[in-house]
Amino acid sequence: MTRVALAAIAGAHGIRGEVRLKLFTDSADNLAHHPSVFVGGRELRLEKVGGAGKAVVARLAGVSTREAAEALRGELIEVDRASLAPLDEGEYYHADLIGLACVDADGTPLGTVVAVENFGAGDLLEVEGENGKRALVPFTPGIADLTDGRVTIDPEFLT
10 Å Cβ neighbour count for 7? Predict the structure, then answer.
């Protein structure tokens, strides 16, 4: 089953095992909706999520000391893709883009989406070309368009 990362553990918070989170979703409520999550491949019960912005904190079942929380630093908090809310037309989850074929306007294969990055200015598709070379392409209309289960890319952005 495909999993989607909703947050990453940034470190310990306090002495009772709570963890600080870096969210990959709009709000802590989106994460709190899930009673269990996967951390480092282990399924854990999500006991509490609170805060907003850069001050989101969570408590995970079985993590009761600062040392245990600190040991989780850098781990992703993931949920099963099937447990996510349905999307509206034109919306997508990053996980749904990975593995999609990339073509030019004529349908000529250009490569495959291998990752999606966002450094604050919008989504970038990491495309691995037919030759094994990788390029970051802005996921912007006219440059990279999602149509019929594949991404049509302006090849000028692959150089």
Answer: 25
